[in-house]
Amino acid sequence: MLYYSTNHKSEKVNFREATIQGQAPDKGLYFPERIAMLPTKLLTELKSTPKADIAFEVIKPYVGDTIPANELHEICTHTVNFEFPLVQVNDTISSLELFHGPTLAFKDVGARFMSRCLGYFSRDNKKKITVLVATSGDTGSAVANGFLGVDGVEVIILYPSGKVSKIQELQLTTLGQNIKALEVQGTFDDCQKMVKQAFTDSELNAKLFLTSANSINVARWLPQQFYYFYALQQWADDEPPVVCVPSGNFGNICAGLLAAVSGLPIKHFIAACNSNDVFTRYLESGKFETREAVATISNAMDVGLPSNFVRILELFGHDYSRIKNFISSYRISDEETVNTIQQVFKNYGYTLDPHGAVGFAALEKYLQQNAGQKGLFLETAHPLKFSDVVEKAIGERLEIPAQLQHLLQLKKQSLVIKPEYEGLKDFLMSA
Ligand SMILES: *Cc1c(COP(=O)(O)O)cnc(C)c1O
């Protein structure tokens, strides 16, 4: 399988190259040159097939011969070695809980898969791979956790001092081994600027093999398909579900759409957005107009220019009416989000996080307009990650889950640096 760039100016590359490069040199996104249709056997035997085997079957055509089958199966087994339960919330709505991984958000799966692939690809590289990430919280911890203990890969995380939550900071700074945290005395934008400058510094790149672990990387995007198979495995109705995905950069929903185009039975998709509603407006008007991101309480979805939009266009052959027929979208305000957390807790005893609440509210709206259907939404983060919003809405304290209990005993280890590129460069050159 080869991947082309959505800007059509760069060469086609295989999975290995696409993973190492992240973004194509012409700044396009890599996209598989054909869609691998699912084997009938996988679909008819879905319910009895182990999670890791499903993952392996789904991803195999996209990896091609760049990773041997036994290694790839091991990577898959490691990637999905936690639960993805489908929990019924009321008569028509279920929640696919994607927060049971080590950092309690759905980005764990993509990060774990990509890190193991890069680890495999770095085996015959002379230079060690250095992954450089700037984070405002969640992505950094998923990436760092995914790479923990992977041979031949070192991870440097830059985070803004005092601007991540206590739990997030502990997640970033207590891993040790091949993970180093730099605490930058500045903002997230400073961190991002420093990282960007490092990628363009030729002296530095001559010494180190730098990569970004960016969310558009095919090795982070493609494994997100797995969730939708695990949802279908647990779906008890004869009719296929309507699936609602809280969306920001649209990587997750686009992976679901790929699974559906490949043959997975899903009736309809809903892109649930907060006030950052570029896609909602696209479905209304046919025009894609990006805007500055605005801050909301579902902040992992605060994206003004969803990078994976171009992948949706590719999937549907740039056909607006096909897209509009298969996907609906709703924008949910912060006020509606809080009300949803409150109501769902009160009426059904289920605790949503703000992102899942946007998903629940959007699905509820769709089902009101399309009576007789049933659906599920993706609950993308553990409520505890957003405890200030959630506890205020439900009027109760949340319990700290087992995965996080041990963190509170650990000691933060970070190197404090000024928000200046030279400090980062000195650190990287001397490492
Ligand atoms: C990243 C993220 C999203 C948005 O996912 P996209 O793939 O960017 O659309 C939603 N919820 C949470 C908790 C996230 O971390």
Q: What report would you give on this structure?
A:
The chain has 431 residues and is α/β, with parallel strands linked by helices. The chain has a domain at 83-105 and 221-398: Rossmann fold (3-Layer(aba) Sandwich), CATH 3.40.50.1100. It has helices at 15-21, 40-44, 51-63, 69-79, 107-121, 138-147, 166-173, 188-200, 202-207, 218-221, 226-234, 251-261, 278-285, 309-315, 320-326, 334-348, 354-369, 387-394, 402-405, 421-430, and strands spanning 3-5, 30-32, 86-88, 93-97, 129-134, 153-160, 179-184, 209-211, 242-246, 268-273, 327-331, 375-379, 415-417. It has a 6-stranded mixed sheet with strand order 3-4-12-9-10-11, sandwiched between helices. Strands 8-5-6-7-13 form a 5-stranded parallel sheet. Strands 1-2 form a two-stranded antiparallel ribbon. Strand 3 (86-88) and strand 4 form a beta hairpin. Helix 3 (51-63) crosses helix 4, helix 5 (107-121) packs across helix 6 (138-147) and helix 12 runs parallel beside helix 14 (309-315). The protein is globular and about 65 Å long. The relative contact order is 0.13. It binds pyridoxal-5'-phosphate. Residues 105, 107, 138, 246-252, 300-301, 355, 380-381 line the site of pyridoxal-5'-phosphate.
Examine the secondary-structure arrangement and name the CATH architecture of the domain at 83-105 and 221-398: 3-Layer(aba) Sandwich
Q: How many β-strands, per DSSP? A: 13
Can you tell me the CATH class of the domain at 83-105 and 221-398? Alpha Beta
Cα distance, first to last residue? 37 Å
Going by helix content, strand content and strand pairing, the class is alpha/beta
Which percent bin holds the helix content?
40-55%
Report low-confidence residues grouped into runs of 5 or more: none
Discrete helix count: 20
Global Rg:
21 Å
Strand content: 5-15%
- The average pLDDT score comes to 94
Q: Order of strands side by side in the largest beta sheet?
A: 3-4-12-9-10-11
Main sheet makeup:
6 strands, mixed
Shape: globular
Which cofactor or ligand species appear? pyridoxal-5'-phosphate
Q: If you consult CATH, what is the topology of the domain at 83-105 and 221-398?
A: Rossmann fold
